[in-house]
């Protein structure tokens, strides 16, 4: 019979331990996990991106439910263990479940430290530890009121940045004179403070909290010096304490944490402990790299191997706030026996400091420019004597020996034991040998086998460079068609990196993704502008200079430089008042051609650019808004007359078409999006060659997509059948959002669908209600910012310069 | 050569362009991301597209009609396309912009 392994806690350390254990000794144990949190194992490091909105919870799950089922693991979610009986070898949960064990692993993690001040129990005071805390903060942030974060360390600053990003007015209180004083020296702490203040975060250092005040709920903070800081939300992020209560009650040896030997065994030979609750060699840990090292050691012992021992190593610290580059490692206090090398570039906001002792690096602080962090870390680890390169050391690896500034060369020059992935402690040699031995060819494979770049993802670029170095031509990222001559990255990579790195402006994308041109070209700029509009609807400021002329002036340029104007006619329906207004405009501006379009609209052609605002003003008075006939966005929803008039009509196709158009107008999409709703399978609205179409039938609404009737001709594919108009709208919207988020710029929906697979689209939109709803919600959110009529904005004076000449020079005008 | 005041650099958006109407046709005045200002004929050598309506990148503009890329410094088409537009002398006096038009043109009246 299998031995019984019980694990208390389901965080990242035991999760990683199980991965190792299942690999080393599959089937050896019958495994049961008790998780006090009511969920699976997720990447706690990524909570800050969830708070800031750069990631969803689903994206940070490490082991989904399926993983536990696949490995036959019993997971009790939301069960807190309240007692360990070491004699009977059982544990009991707060829900009364008792489980016996042969071997027990305690991974209870840590608890946030709560300042012992009056008012600490008031509603509105929260900590920052798990997903529930993040959700509480997100809820509070909806108020967009004032928040105070107590604690200017890693966690506190990430919380503050997230809350500011969510629209709150945030003050950080820090008891020490400079921020992140445990990781940064005062100079770097100062630069960090300036940058945070520039982002709208107020920072008060040397601020001692005296009390949290409020009547029934939080109203503010009182400082020792008498100042009152108003707040409706207080986040305490002043530190963590190992969670040892359970182990103490069980009579295990406890110091600061649960005392374990270098094999992670506690004072009881059947019980192991690892993670933030464990104390090994007199140290407790909070960063993920040493915790993963504990996981490796514990798994090795549980698998029956001997000899694995935990070894302390310094872990570099990075701050996960988008756009702030910060790296800190080792010991950087001043001292008589120490020397330092400092580089400052005030205008670039760069500060670098190396602390040396006996010509060896013992500490590093980098701010603003951190690319050489891995190299300095390696020099420190190896205790390399740096006297030979001392003069140029601070400039980084690229400046040693006059080597050219080639990122590939830097990676090639790294020794085999240089750490590439800090989170997972994976070195260069391991990645290279795994690629070779297992014949890996894709980044996903490398992530699966080595874990490199699988946690926070910030080393993805390095890992890819290693793949290129190792595989040469057979790993060909250039097999991806680059977006344009300005970059080697393809559209998909750029979209992924925009999200992963939280890039929110075109200059940020070009800087971070190392664009080869100073400000892009007419191919990449409109694509980047779309991706940013799509990914950050509330934060990104649309760059009109990166839009094609048609979208910039909201009309269609014609071959002679005049423009055409198409007002929106919902579902292709109009009336006498609208037609009269159009007729008047045509007369007033002497518009040479009026033409009915294929999308059931009226096109007014041959308008001078300078007349556009006046034309729109007149059309606007009749109730017209822009028909967006120029947009890579929702164009038209064509309809037939449906059940109201047609003797064959099965549903109100006109009504549904108008409803869809009113819901979706204004949205930008990768390429133009044309739709149609036909009231019966006779299909008079020609819905089966549209990007998205609906065929009404007696039993409901058949949703079609991926048709084409341009350069290519292609009938639509069926997405699925739904019963009600509401469902039809929801699924169409979700499909559109999926397309918006995934397609490459200028890629019509049929090409996108062919590339990623019709079944995958059906699975996500028709088969996964949660996913469908999430797409729908994201679309609805972005519409809040997109549904602004561009014509009326310009009638009111926006972008005036677009429509007027800068100057007119006439004959006989006096020259200067 | 005669210098004509056409306005201030701030009248032109960064990475953007404005037109100046003259008796001999429109002139496009560009402002790059680096705040350099150039003036060329607003008439693509390919099919006469209004270059002032194109996307400005580095020291070039892409024509809105058929994507020819025209150098703002030399007026010549970049890449494989061949052709050129006339460049117009431009003076930037602390932000105040002047373009030079030939005597002939001014005296034409």
Give an overview in words.
The complex is a heterodimer of chains A (816) and B (109). By secondary structure, chain A is of the alpha/beta class. Chain A has 26 helices and 42 strands. In chain A, the strands form twelve sheets. A five-stranded parallel sheet of chain A has the order 5-2-1-9-21, with no helix packed on it. Chain A has a five-stranded parallel sheet with strand order 11-18-12-13-14. Chain A is globular and about 90 Å long. Chain B is mainly beta and 109 residues long. Chain B has one domain (2-106): Rieske [2Fe-2S] iron-sulphur domain (Rieske Iron-sulfur Protein), CATH 2.102.10. In chain B, 4% of the residues lie in helices and 43% in strands. Chain B has one helix at residues 103-106; strands at 2-8, 16-22, 25-31, 37-41, 55-57, 60-62, 69-71, 87-88, 90-93, 96-101. In chain B, a hairpin with a 5-residue loop joins strand 3 and strand 4 (37-41). The longest helix of chain B has 4 residues, at 103-106. The model of chain B has no long low-confidence stretch (mean pLDDT 89). Chains A and B meet through helix 17 and strand 42 of A and strand 1, strand 2 and strand 5 of B. Strand 42 of chain A pairs parallel with strand 2 of chain B, so a sheet runs across the interface.
């Amino acid at each position: 019979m299998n031995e019984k392994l019980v694990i208390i806690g389901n965080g990242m350390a035991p999760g990683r331990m199980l991965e190792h254990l299942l690999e080393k000794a599959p089937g050896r144990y019958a495994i049961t996990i008790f998780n006090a949190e009511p969920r699976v194992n997720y990447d706690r490091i990524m909570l800050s991106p969830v708070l800031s909105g750069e990631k969803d919870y689903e994206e940070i799950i490490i082991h989904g439910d399926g993983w536990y089922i696949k490995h036959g693991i019993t997971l009790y979610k939301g069960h807190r263990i309240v007692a360990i009986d070491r004699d009977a070898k059982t544990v009991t949960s707060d829900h009364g479940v008792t489980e016996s064990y042969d071997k027990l692993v305690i991974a209870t993690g840590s608890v946030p430290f709560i300042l012992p001040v009056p008012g600490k129990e008031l509603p509105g005071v929260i900590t920052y530890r798990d997903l529930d805390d993040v959700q509480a903060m997100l809820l509070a942030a909806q108020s967009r009121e004032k928040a105070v974060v107590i604690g200017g360390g890693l966690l506190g600053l990430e919380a503050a940045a997230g809350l500011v990003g969510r629209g709150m007015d945030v003050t950080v209180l820090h008891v020490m004179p400079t921020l992140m004083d445990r990781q940064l020296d005062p100079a770097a702490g100062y630069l960090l403070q300036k940058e945070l203040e520039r982002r709208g975060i107020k920072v008060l250092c040397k601020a001692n909290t005296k009390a949290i005040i409020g009547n029934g709920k939080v109203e503010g903070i009182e400082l020792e010096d008498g100042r009152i800081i108003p707040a409706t939300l207080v986040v305490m992020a002043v530190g963590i304490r190992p969670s040892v209560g359970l182990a103490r009650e069980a009579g295990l040896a406890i110091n600061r944490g649960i005392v374990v030997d270098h094999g992670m065994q506690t004072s009881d030979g059947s019980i192991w402990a690892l993670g933030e609750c464990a104390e090994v060699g007199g140290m407790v840990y909070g960063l993920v790299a040493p915790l993963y090292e504990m996981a490796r050691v514990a798994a090795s012992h549980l698998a029956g191997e001997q000899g694995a021992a935990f070894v302390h190593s310094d872990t570099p610290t990075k701050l996960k706030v988008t756009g702030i580059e910060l790296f800190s490692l080792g010991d950087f206090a001043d001292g008589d026996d120490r020397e330092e090398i400092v580089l400052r570039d005030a205008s670039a906001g760069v500060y670098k400091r190396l602390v040396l002792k006996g010509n060896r690096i013992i500490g590093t602080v980098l701010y603003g420019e951190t690319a050489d962090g891995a190299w300095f870390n390696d020099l420190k680890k190896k205790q390399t004597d740096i006297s030979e390169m001392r003069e140029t050391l601070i400039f980084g690896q690229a400046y040693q020996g006059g080597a050219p500034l080639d990122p590939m060369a830097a990676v090639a020059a790294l020794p085999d034991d240089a750490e590439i992935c800090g989170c997972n402690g994976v070195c260069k040699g391991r990645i290279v040998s795994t690629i070779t031995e297992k014949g890996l060819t894709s980044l996903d494979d490398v992530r699966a086998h080595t874990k490199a770049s699988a946690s926070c993802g910030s080393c993805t670029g390095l890992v890819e460079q290693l793949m290129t170095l190792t595989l040469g031509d057979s790993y060909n990222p250039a097999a991806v068609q680059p977006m344009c001559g300005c970059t080697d990255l393809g559209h998909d990579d750029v979209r992924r990196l925009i999200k992963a790195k939280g890039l929110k402006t075109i200059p940020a994308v070009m800087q971070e993704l190392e664009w080869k041109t100073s400000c892009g070209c007419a191919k990449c700029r409109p694509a980047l502008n779309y991706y940013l509009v799509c990914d950050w609807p509330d934060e990104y400021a649309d760059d009109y200079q990166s839009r094609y002329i048609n979208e910039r002036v909201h009309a269609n340029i014609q071959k002679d430089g005049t423009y055409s104007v198409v007002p929106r006619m919902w579902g292709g329906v109009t009336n006498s008042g609208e037609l009269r207004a159009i007729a008047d405009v045509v007369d007033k501006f002497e518009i040479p051609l009026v033409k009915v379009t294929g999308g059931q609209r009226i096109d007014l052609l041959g308008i001078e650019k300078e007349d556009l605002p006046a034309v729109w003003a007149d059309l606007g008075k009749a109730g017209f808004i822009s028909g967006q006939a120029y947009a890579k966005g929702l164009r038209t929803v064509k309809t037939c007359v449906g059940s109201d008039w047609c003797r064959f009509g099965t549903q109100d196709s006109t009504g549904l078409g108008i409803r869809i158009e009113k819901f979706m107008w204004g949205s930008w999409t990768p390429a133009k999006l044309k739709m149609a709703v036909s009231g019966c399978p006779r299909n008079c609205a020609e819905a089966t060659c549209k990007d998205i179409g609906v065929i009404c039938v007696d039993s409901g609404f058949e949703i079609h997509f991926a048709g084409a009737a341009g350069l290519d001709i292609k009938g639509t594919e069926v997405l699925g059948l739904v019963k009600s108009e509401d469902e039809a709208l929801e699924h169409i919207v979700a499909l559109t959002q999926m397309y918006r988020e995934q397609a490459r710029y200028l890629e019509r929906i049929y090409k996108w669908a062919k590339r990623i697979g019709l079944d995958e689209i059906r699975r996500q939109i028709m088969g996964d209600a949660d996913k469908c709803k999430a797409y729908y919600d994201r679309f609805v959110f972005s519409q809040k910012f997109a549904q602004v009529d561009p014509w009326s904005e310009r009638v009111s004076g926006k972008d005036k310069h677009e429509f007027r000449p800068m100057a007119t020079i006439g004959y006989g005008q006096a020259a200067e | 050569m005669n210098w004509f005041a056409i306005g201030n650099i701030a009248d032109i958006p960064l990475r953007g362009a404005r037109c100046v109407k003259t008796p001999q046709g429109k002139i496009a005045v560009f402002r790059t991301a680096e705040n350099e200002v150039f003036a060329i004929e607003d008439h693509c050598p390919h099919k006469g597209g209004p270059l002032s309506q194109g996307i400005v990148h580095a020291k070039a503009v892409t024509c809105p009609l058929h994507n020819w890329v025209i150098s703002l410094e030399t007026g010549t088409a970049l890449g494989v396309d061949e052709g050129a537009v006339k460049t117009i002398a431009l003076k930037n006096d602390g932000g105040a912009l002047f373009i030079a038009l030939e005597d002939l043109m001014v005296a034409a009246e």
